[in-house]
Design goal:
The protein is mainly alpha-helical and 323 residues long. It contains 13 helices and no strands. It has helices at residues 2-28, 32-44, 48-61, 68-81, 85-98, 105-118, 128-143, 150-177, 181-194, 201-217, 221-241, 248-262, 270-322. α4 (68-81) packs antiparallel against α5 (85-98). The radius of gyration is 35 Å and the shape is elongated. The chain starts with a helix and ends with a helix. The model is unreliable at 268-272, 300-309 and 319-323 (pLDDT under 50).
């Protein structure tokens, strides 16, 4: 009973060794046609690592031939499918340089961008690859406007920008968590100085105000007055942008405490100031609405003037014809 099993195992072992030897023999050989066919066979069977090795071997043999760009492109594509994005990006970069007019070039440019995107790290880690990927995406979209991958590119950009926003916000907030409130306020303000549209803008402004309040509250008596005034500025900036924020009630409490420290009437509460801010916004909106309406009236007047001029020209022409 053991002999047939042993024999079957030996046969399987011999077959596997034979297959492996056949691949290695093909890889080391110089028969470009056989190697070319086998590379595509492995590629379409999903054996991308073996396909990549064969295409790499072919890249030397097919250099300068009609197959050159095809071999180079599928070498990169095999590595891409194998998820070796670093090598694939190198392949596609070289391909783009060597074959700018190949029918594969447009797709190679996008795949290079995708490789760079997939090689980026979580927001906690180094974001240099993120900046590189964003630059490559911008370049690709500029060269191929309205391309078929536009929606994918837009999603990439949003994801990468979100990582940068998160990185900047969390790095600044770390000072707050460490209770270094002076450094926290500076770092948080720099976040918006570098990127006013940071996705965490509301949180940044909140922590800025909280940092200035806590820094003032922990200061010596002689310096508290000026530092509470700084908090009040941060507070007013916050409620001016986010009057209905989830942080309002907490900041209102801080503001009332600051008013006491400043020796002002506590009745001068946040709701009154928010009403002032609301009035200013309404007045600004009314001004903008007035400008829009005025522009519309100017356009209507211009159109009416053109119609009148056209009628006058028509009437003059009719009179000239009668004469």
């Amino acid at each position: 009973m053991r002999l047939p099993r042993l024999f079957a195992a030996l046969v399987i072992l011999l077959l596997s060794v034979s297959c492996k030897s056949q691949y290695e023999q093909l890889l080391a050989g110089t028969d470009s046609d056989a190697k070319y066919k086998a590379a595509f066979d492995y590629f379409y069977k999903g054996k991308y690592q073996k396909a990549a090795q064969l295409f790499e071997s072919l890249s030397v043999i097919s250099n300068g031939t009609a197959r050159d760009d095809t071999v180079q492109y599928y070498w990169g594509l095999s590595n891409y499918r194998f998820r070796d994005y670093y090598t694939a990006e190198t392949n596609f970069s070289r391909f783009i340089t060597n074959f700018p007019r190949s029918p594969f070039t447009s797709e190679a440019r996008f795949l290079r961008v995708d490789c760079l995107y997939r090689s980026t790290y979580r927001y906690e880690l180094d974001q240099a690859p993120t900046h590189q990927a964003l630059a490559a995406i911008a370049e690709y979209r500029s060269e191929f406007p309205g391309n078929e991958h536009e929606e994918v590119c837009e999603k990439m950009v949003k994801d990468l920008e979100a990582r940068l926003d998160t990185k900047a916000f969390e790095a600044a907030r770390l000072y707050y968590k460490m209770e270094d409130y002076k450094a926290a306020r500076v770092a948080l303000r720099n976040v918006l100085k570098d990127d006013a549209d940071n996705m965490y803008r509301e949180d940044v402004l909140y922590y800025t105000a909280m940092s200035s309040y806590k820094y003032a509250a922990l200061s010596v008596k002689e310096k508290q007055h000026d530092r509470f005034l700084t908090f009040e500025d941060d507070y007013l900036n916050f409620i001016g942008e986010y009057p209905n924020s989830k942080y309002i009630r907490e900041l209102d409490v801080m503001h009332r405490r600051a008013l006491k420290q400043l020796g002002r009437p506590v009745g001068e509460v946040a709701s009154d100031r928010r009403q002032d801010r609301s009035f200013e916004r309404d007045r600004s909106a009314m001004g903008k609405a007035g400008e829009v309406k005025a522009e519309a009236l100017r356009k209507e007047a211009a159109a009416a003037s053109r119609d009148i001029n056209a009628r006058q020209r028509k009437d003059r022409k009719a009179k000239d014809e009668k004469k």
